[in-house]
Automatic annotation (TrEMBL), chain A:
Family under the similarity heading: Belongs to the eIF-2B alpha/beta/delta subunits family.
Compositionally biased tracts (Basic and acidic residues): 68-83
Name by which UniProt lists this protein: Translation initiation factor eIF2B subunit delta
Assembly and oligomerization: Component of the translation initiation factor 2B (eIF2B) complex which is a heterodecamer of two sets of five different subunits: alpha, beta, gamma, delta and epsilon. Subunits alpha, beta and delta comprise a regulatory subcomplex and subunits epsilon and gamma comprise a catalytic subcomplex. Within the complex, the hexameric regulatory complex resides at the center, with the two heterodimeric catalytic subcomplexes bound on opposite sides.
Pfam family, one: IF-2B
Ranges of biased composition (kind: Polar residues): 40-56
Region (Disordered): 1-145
Entry keywords, A to Z: Cytoplasm, Initiation factor, Protein biosynthesis
Species name: Stereocaulon virgatum
Cellular compartment(s): Cytoplasm, Cytosol
TrEMBL record, chain B:
Signal sequence residues: none
Claim: Ribosomal protein is one of the keywords in the record: no
Keywords assigned: Cytoplasm, Initiation factor, Protein biosynthesis
Principal location: cytoplasm
Alphabetized InterPro entries for the sequence: eIF2B_beta_subunit (IPR051855), IF-2B-related (IPR000649), IF_2B-like_C (IPR042529), NagB/RpiA_transferase-like (IPR037171)
Protein's UniProt name: Translation initiation factor eIF2B subunit beta
The organism's taxonomic lineage, starting at the top: Eukaryota, Fungi, Dikarya, Ascomycota, Pezizomycotina
Subunit text: Component of the translation initiation factor 2B (eIF2B) complex which is a heterodecamer of two sets of five different subunits: alpha, beta, gamma, delta and epsilon. Subunits alpha, beta and delta comprise a regulatory subcomplex and subunits epsilon and gamma comprise a catalytic subcomplex. Within the complex, the hexameric regulatory complex resides at the center, with the two heterodimeric catalytic subcomplexes bound on opposite sides.
């Protein structure tokens, strides 16, 4: 499992054409210099500082503004700016095309590389930075090296249309997923802003990866956090995190593993002694997060890997059949990675499952979560694979870190699930597909379900970091992992 | 029949046109069809069946043979060529067998005319429903009623038919005995006069009420080649055979509508129906029910081989992409336009939704004699999921898709599709390193199917072989080049 925690993609963006003016302003306000700073850490420090001050400043300003509407407007505008700036900073992956995987040191390198190309910007931004730090609002000078643009791309007005929600899943639709950063709470840390978008666009995808990325982002949040006066860290940091989480949820519902990790983190925070010095507490928390990731995911994966692969070390020759599905085609990456390692790979889609199962001697499944009643909650289509394998008397083995165990139980794929935007079902790059008109066709609904539930009967064995267990033992292991 | 609009590539439409034009010789039509089959320019059960029937009609029309046995032999040979051109399209063989059956039947009827003393009741070699055994009401023999005679079983008569199964069986000689019985029964009387043929009322000949009990199979099913050779009324026989083939074509055209006629018997209000891939048969079926009832259709798209057609189905076709259809499917109303809620899902979501589905309705490529079906890839997993959820699986199939072939090697019926549909050329780099599997069909065993609906009505899986036996003559069962299936 690689943790593509893309939390500070800042380095990418100097050339980003979006809303330079706002960028300028925001950049000034929060002093997040998009790319060219040669010392990321320093600039980050700045961010933190200003974040804190901003929080205080804003409410005050709001109260000064007598009119409610005016205040609201301003707040909104501010939020939008903040959002856009963060977008600039965080590097919306869609625009840049490539997910950035960068942790601290890489980050440094990255910005070093980018540095020279944008030197021209530096001075201007530093200037901005100074200015807005003191006075928010007023100053609106366009950055010289970028075309001025008023408020960039207001989100498209939703035309009135028929309800396209599938009735059976109506309870799962909720709010449409956030597509822009507009409206995000100002408290949300840029790293989290970026992460939310990456999750939404499936740049960071997969239960473990999302969990790791979230924890890394929260680490940044904690690093940047300054306890407001008259508040204690254990009390206030939790609420501060809550707003981050709220934003993440608005991008894409949390994964079970993220939920578990967040619960753990909140407990950790609440355990912090009030008398501890803030910086020490923060360091402790960050270390705890690092340990958590290492212990629960990195090492767990290694152990699972070991447990699962003993057989293969002895018998060197084997072949992997990757069964993939629409619309995400996540299996392509796996197939590619395996093929690059020189393993013989066969690739098929869900429709070929009855054929490829004939050649299979074992089926390995990933998990989004294991329910307490032994059922496997995983990417839609998993149940079909498990069923087919079971019918063909092929053992089905689930590889799952214990962080993915949940005390929740489920009987069907309806009550708890995630419905992704149906537009994702449209075939990428196809312009002539008749499906493009689906919104105009009354009574037609597209359902893009994310997960399904595999009955426990189909699962022969679960491998987690503590060993092999039958699916019925999941609740015990779950209790153990919670208590430990 | 076919709309001549903008069909450039060779297809059923172009073939239909060429096979009818007088300028094209029969031989070249045969060659043409063989190559069309080989190149898969005509594919799927119905187009293949239609093309085969059209070709055989032309063959019979133009045949100058005076000897019926030679005609049979010729049709048989052509049939074998067509089958070997595309052995996976079993509907080709089905039609060839049906045509052979028509020829044999006509000959027999001829002889009946001469030897009416032999059997006063049965003129149809096929077993009929016992209900009507004793009430031989002569019917005016119009074309449509004759097309019914080819498939005389109607829904509702199943029970009585099932009782009859045991009785009918011995009437059909086993596969190989037909040849031996030729020699034995050479003494069968022969038709010598075409006058008596004409004088024989057709209403009797084609009455759907002929009785199986009155037949003596040793006589009816065992025309000796000599007897055939002696037949004098070849020319009129020819006209009747052409008529018979025409009826088969009619049946091909009407099958979907006839199947749709049973829709209301199977779909109740507020139902959730799951279907898979694009199929005109299923669409018509559901549309028919939609006229009276409200229900929900969950449509699995059958990516990557049929998703485009499926999308076109749910959205509504704009251009005439359904080239190989001889009906009005281009202008087919969509289910959504009929007020039915359609939920399009990727195939992978089938299992998740199955617990809320009331019925699964599947189209099929072919139905084999034991009830196994060959359907679009993904159907097997779907049917299995349905079975696990105790959801009934209904298979819609025209009689022309019922094949008397026993699947000794199901894998021989499978076919792989274009791998670039799974991995496009954008991923070219890793195409070199991996093996791509893109099956076109799934082999769905009979245990996973709850009910078959043909143009004759609904049938239990166990009853299917009776229908098949009704439609194919035992003599023609071994038509195939048998090594394909063994």
């Amino acid at each position: 499992m690689m943790p593509p925690a893309n939390v500070e993609g800042g380095s990418l963006l100097p050339q980003d054409p979006d809303s330079p003016k706002d960028l300028l302003q925001n950049g000034a306000k929060e002093q997040v210099v998009p790319a060219p700073c040669d010392n990321t850490m320093a600039s980050e420090g700045n961010v933190k500082g200003t974040n804190g001050t901003q929080q205080k400043a804003k409410p005050a300003k709001g109260s000064n503004d007598g009119k409610l509407s005016g205040k609201e407007l301003k707040d909104k505008a501010k939020a939008e700016k903040a959002a856009r700036r963060a977008q600039q900073k965080g590097g919306q992956p869609g625009q840049q095309g490539q997910p950035v995987v960068d942790l601290g040191p890489e980050m440094q390198k990255h910005s070093d590389l980018k540095g020279p190309s944008v030197t021209g910007a530096t001075s201007a931004q530093k200037f901005q930075h100074k200015r807005t730090g003191s006075a928010s609002g007023g100053f609106q000078k366009p950055i010289p090296f970028r075309p001025a643009q008023a408020h960039a791309a207001p989100f498209p007005e939703e035309p009135k249309r028929e309800n396209k929600n599938v009735a059976l899943f109506d309870h799962l639709y909720g709010n449409p997923r956030r597509t822009t950063l507009a409206g995000a709470s100002k408290d949300v840390h840029p790293a989290v802003l970026a992460l939310g978008l990456q999750m939404r666009n499936y740049v960071i995808c997969g239960s473990s990866a999302r969990c790791v990325a979230t924890m890394l982002a929260f680490k940044r949040v904690i690093e940047a956090y300054v306890t407001p006066p008259q508040n204690s860290l254990p009390r206030h940091l939790t609420t501060h995190l809550s707003s981050q989480i709220e934003y993440l949820v608005s991008c894409r519902p949390l994964s079970i593993s993220m939920g578990n990790a967040i619960r753990w983190l909140k407990v950790k925070i609440s355990e912090v002694d009030v008398s501890t010095e803030e910086s020490a507490a923060k360091t402790d928390l960050c270390n705890a997060i690092d340990n958590f990731i290492t212990e629960k995911i990195t090492v767990a994966d290694q152990v699972i890997e070991k447990e699962g692969s003993i057989r293969y070390e002895m018998a060197t020759k084997f072949k992997v059949i990757v069964v993939d599905s629409r619309p995400l085609f996540e299996g392509k990456n796996l197939a590619r990675a395996l093929a690059d390692l020189g393993i013989e790979v066969q690739y098929s889609l869900t429709h070929g499952i009855s054929h490829v199962i004939k050649d299979a001697t074992k089926v390995f499944l990933g998990a989004h979560a294991m329910m307490s009643n032994g059922r496997l909650y995983s990417r839609v289509g998993t149940a079909l694979v498990a069923m087919t394998a079971r019918e063909a008397d092929v053992p089905v083995i689930v590889c799952c870190e214990s962080i993915k165990y949940t005390e929740r139980v489920a009987l069907d794929s309806f009550v708890h699930n995630e419905v992704a935007p149906p537009e994702e079902l449209l075939i990428q790059g196809e312009t002539s597909s008749p499906l493009l008109k689906w919104l105009d066709v009354p009574n037609l609904q597209l359902l893009n379900l994310m997960y399904d539930l595999t009955p426990a009967e189909y699962i022969t064995m679960v491998i987690d970091e503590s060993g092999y267990l039958p699916p019925s033992s999941v609740p015990f292991m779950q209790r153990l992992s919670v208590n430990s | 029949m076919p709309s001549p609009t903008g069909v450039l590539a060779p297809s059923l439409t172009t073939f239909t046109r060429s096979v009818r034009s007088k300028g094209v010789s029969v031989e070249s039509s045969i060659d043409n069809l063989v190559s069309l089959f080989k190149r898969r320019q005509i594919r799927d059960s119905r187009p293949c069946a239609v093309a085969t029937a059209q070709l055989l009609r032309r063959v019979v029309e133009t045949s100058k043979v005076t000897d019926i046995s030679k005609l049979i032999e010729r049709v048989r040979q052509i049939g074998q060529r067509l089958i070997s051109a595309q052995p996976r399209e079993l509907s080709i063989g089905n039609i060839v067998r049906r045509v052979l059956g028509v020829i044999r039947e006509e000959v027999e009827e001829d002889r009946e005319g001469e030897t009416s003393g032999y059997s006063d009741a049965g003129t149809d070699s096929r077993p009929q429903t016992p209900k009507e055994q004793d009430s031989r009401t002569p019917e005016p023999s119009t074309l449509s009623s004759r097309s019914l005679t080819t498939s005389p079983l109607r829904h509702g008569e199943m029970d009585s038919i099932l009782e009859e199964v045991g009785d009918e069986r011995p009437q059909r000689p086993p596969l190989l005995t037909s040849h031996t019985s030729y020699a034995v029964t050479n003494t069968a009387p022969t038709v010598t006069s075409m006058f008596s043929l004409l004088s024989y009322p057709r209403s009797n000949i084609h009455s759907p009420t002929a009785t199986p009990g009155s037949q003596s199979p040793s006589i009816h099913l065992s025309l000796s080649s000599q007897a055939l050779a002696n037949a004098g009324a070849v020319k009129d026989l020819k006209a009747e055979v052409v008529e018979g083939i025409h009826e088969i074509l009619e049946e091909l055209n009407q099958a979907d509508d006839q199947i749709a006629g049973y829709a209301l018997e199977h779909i109740h209000s507020n139902e959730v129906i799951l279907t898979h891939t694009s199929s005109l048969t299923v669409q018509k079926f559901l549309l028919k029910a939609a006229a009276k009832r409200k229900f929900t259709v969950v449509h699995a798209e059958a990516y990557p081989n049929h998703h485009e057609a499926t999308h076109a189905d749910v959205i509504g076709r704009t251009k005439s992409e359904s080239d190989d259809s001889l009906s009005s499917e281009v202008f087919q109303k969509t289910l959504t336009a009929a007020g039915i809620t359609v939920v399009l899902i990727p195939d992978s979501a089938v299992f998740a939704l199955m617990s809320r589905v009331n019925k699964v309705i599947l189209d099929t490529h072919v139905v084999l004699v034991n009830g196994d079906i060959v359907a679009a890839a993904g159907a097997k997993a779907l049917a299995k999921a349905a079975k696990l959820h105790s959801t009934p699986v209904v298979v819609l199939s025209g009689v022309y898709k019922l094949s008397p072939v026993y699947p000794f090697d199901p894998d021989a019926l499978m076919e792989d599709g274009d791998p670039s549909k799974v991995i496009t050329y954008e991923d070219g780099d890793f195409v070199d390193k991996i093996e791509i599997e893109n099956p076109l069909f799934d082999y769905v065993p009979v245990e996973l199917v709850s009910l078959y609906i043909t143009n004759l009505g609904g049938h239990a899986p166990s009853y299917l072989h009776c229908i098949i036996n009704d439609h194919y003559r035992a003599e023609d069962l071994d038509l195939d080049i048998s090594d394909v299936y063994q």
